[in-house]
């Protein structure tokens, strides 16, 4: 069974700020390529985690397997209480805890 949830970066929109790479506690991005976000471990992304997408100021991150109605905030922080054990601040979506 293949992985059905992972981030996809729209490099046309990405401003290479590195916030998503710093935010991800799951090792999905290649830190050596920072600040440019390069997904190297999509299998490590946690189903429902929106940590990198929520912090993305340009709205450049979407997710393969997304069917929850979540929309990139395009620079507007999502005000949710963090209840995720990994620290991704994804609110009620992350299933890693």
TrEMBL record:
<feature type="domain" description="4Fe-4S ferredoxin-type">
    <location>
        <begin position="5"/>
        <end position="34"/>
    </location>
</feature>
<feature type="domain" description="4Fe-4S ferredoxin-type">
    <location>
        <begin position="36"/>
        <end position="66"/>
    </location>
</feature>
<keyword id="KW-0004">4Fe-4S</keyword>
<keyword id="KW-0408">Iron</keyword>
<dbReference type="InterPro" id="IPR017896">
    <property type="entry name" value="4Fe4S_Fe-S-bd"/>
</dbReference>
<protein>
    <submittedName>
        <fullName>4Fe-4S binding domain-containing protein</fullName>
    </submittedName>
</protein>
<dbReference type="GO" id="GO:0046872">
    <property type="term" value="F:metal ion binding"/>
</dbReference>
<dbReference type="Pfam" id="PF00037">
    <property type="entry name" value="Fer4"/>
</dbReference>
<keyword id="KW-0411">Iron-sulfur</keyword>
<keyword id="KW-0479">Metal-binding</keyword>
<dbReference type="GO" id="GO:0051539">
    <property type="term" value="F:4 iron, 4 sulfur cluster binding"/>
</dbReference>
<dbReference type="InterPro" id="IPR017900">
    <property type="entry name" value="4Fe4S_Fe_S_CS"/>
</dbReference>
<dbReference type="InterPro" id="IPR050572">
    <property type="entry name" value="Fe-S_Ferredoxin"/>
</dbReference>
